[in-house]
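Box 3.1. Reading complex inputs
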Amino acid sequence: MDLNLTAEELAFRDELRAWLASHVPKDWEEWREKPMEESFPYLRAWQQKLQEGRWAAVSWPKEYGGRSATLMQQAIFWEEMARVEAPPMANSLGLGLIGPTIIAYGTEAQKKRYIPKILSAEEIWCQGFSEPNAGSDLAGLQTEARLDGDQYVVNGQKVWTSYGWVGDWCELVVRTDTAAAKHKGLTVLLVDMKSPGVEVRPLRQMTGESEFNELFFRDVRVPVENILGKVNDGWNVAMSTLMYERGSYGARLHLIFKRYITRLIELARTIPRNGRPAAEDPIIRQKLAQCSAEIEIMRFNQMRAFSRITATGVPGPEGSIQKIFWSELNQRLQQVAQEILGSYGQLLGGDPHAIDKGLWSYAYLRTRGNTIEAGTSEVQRNIIGHFVLGLPRSY
Amino acid sequence: MQFGLSESQEFLKDSARKFFAGECPSAEMRRLMETDTAYDAALWSKLTDQGYTGIIFPEEYGGVGLGKVELMLLMEETGRALLPGPFFSTVVLAGSVLNAVATPVHKKQYLAPICGGEVRSTVALVENSANWDPRAVELSASNGKLTGEKFFVSDAAIADFLIVVGRDGVFVVDSKARGLKISPMHGMDLTRKLYVVGFGNTPAEKIGSASDLARALDITTAALAAELVGDMQRTLDITVEYAKTRKQFGKPIGMFQAVQHQCADMYLETESSRSAVYYAGWALEENSPDASTAVSIAKMYASDAARTVGNRGIQIHGGMGFTWENDIHLYYRRAKASETAFGDATFHRERIASVVIDLASVTAKSAQ
């Protein structure tokens, strides 16, 4: 065990720090509150700038424009990005999930065709996985692709698609064999979102915004050369995408949560409770300390997981404890924030009395989604029960 | 950065697990817990042969000179075995205090025989206030004599000498000293015996200053949290095993999500405690500025988690979990005793708060 950064890790961090110091945009603060439709060109330009420095996809192999970064270097990357409050990249799904899947499963022609434009943010990618009747039970999805000559004809509906409204391409999981057992009849198609028959609708969520879309496919024609991986092997392809989803998330979250708790402690020094600052109230102190401690433990868990993955080569089902931990911690943290803010906690962004422009009321509502998105807490507990502890499958 | 165990650390942990499984299986642990002191001389000499009694102490005093992470690993295994007797009191607690406060001469006299397995010892710290903050100690010496009482002193009856924390110093008191009275307290944990230790004009040798205690108590507290990790791991293991084999409604109960999800939570709590304990061990070893806070984080989390893991484990065992015959309640008892020892979760949360709230405020002000 050695928690000091190695010479390579330090060199990586210092190079990145130096690059960020001279390149990170100074005006992100003005843009971040605007709707994403407005800020999207800005995010695209930022990604292009990052890629000019070869920083957009550090985890990718060097031959595809990345840096073949180790997991620890990836963690350092996200930590440093969070430290300087860098804007997100426009093509975050393409870079984080779909690009790596194409690199792993794609043909040479596909890699040549798609990879450079993912890096340059010329083509934005979205993911067509969940459906109205296939959420946790993803393998039960019904969007169907029927072979017609050298084209598939796709019909169905997808939900909870991030970046659907701006997506040029979609990694779409479809059913190609209705007779096979449900995991066995799936295929992944790379679908041009400008194809006739694709319709994108905003999905308004409980926070009032629309981060996600619904996608409708009506007789959408997709050439067979757009199959990713093998026909009827889509489950494995899709699962590999979902594994990348867990990869480096935690490194970012640690600093984001730390920023929350630091601000909350600041607020607690000024907000009165029982005739003294909340920060002097023993109950509030206990709760702030609990959250602070858990934020550190989240990081310790993450570092241990990275070391384990580095040693064994593959992210294991243990990643599920990360997902449960951060999502439930975020909910507890936001509840503590609400207790400290009292009646002010409910005020929305537009209200002149709102604290921090309504950040806390938004975060409180938004965290309800944390234990649902990217695999519900229930699914994560099933994964731990079955794949980690070896208990019999419950479903 | 590498937050996994090295080969030699894996080896130490593995061999400790095998050693305790062979030398102190459940039947032996139960035999010892029914005795007055839970001490067994033959087992002690085997612990000594393994080098465990000198694990973290300098070689010049007969120790093995391993690091704090290694200590955490060993304690995880003593916790898993529910090792009865004065190992924690003698080696971890008394040994660390001696190592932190004593002069080389006193270390030769008191720490060396601990490393060599020749003596048993313990530390008398808290008083009837049951406050684990050393600043709450009131006992003090007068003309080299102690008069007063210490509470919750573990393994005092088997100690050859006791280390006593006073306001004005740290003292050694011989077990045969005049006026020393050791009376059992009947605690839940049958494997670690507790006592009230009374002093009536009892001669005491001052060996150091109480202000040097903090680091020793941090090491001890982290080690206790490590022991809780082993306690949780064993509770999880026997619970999962039971959930796989126990059938109701024609199925193993582990197939039901109401059961499976509780097991998943036990796993999450155990692993998170382990991460916190390993980090604390590393921070202590490196003398990292956040070491004390890291210890509080580990003890705070493990104290609560061990109780919760035990609650879930007993519940999943159903009626079997409520029997004397099943070991799970013995782990639950240890977890409860260790929850409050060296500060419960509330105590350590306040310690964390004093850093993240108060100290942060001072730093912010001085930066202005």
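In summary: The CA atoms of residues 46 and 373 of chain A lie 26 Å apart.
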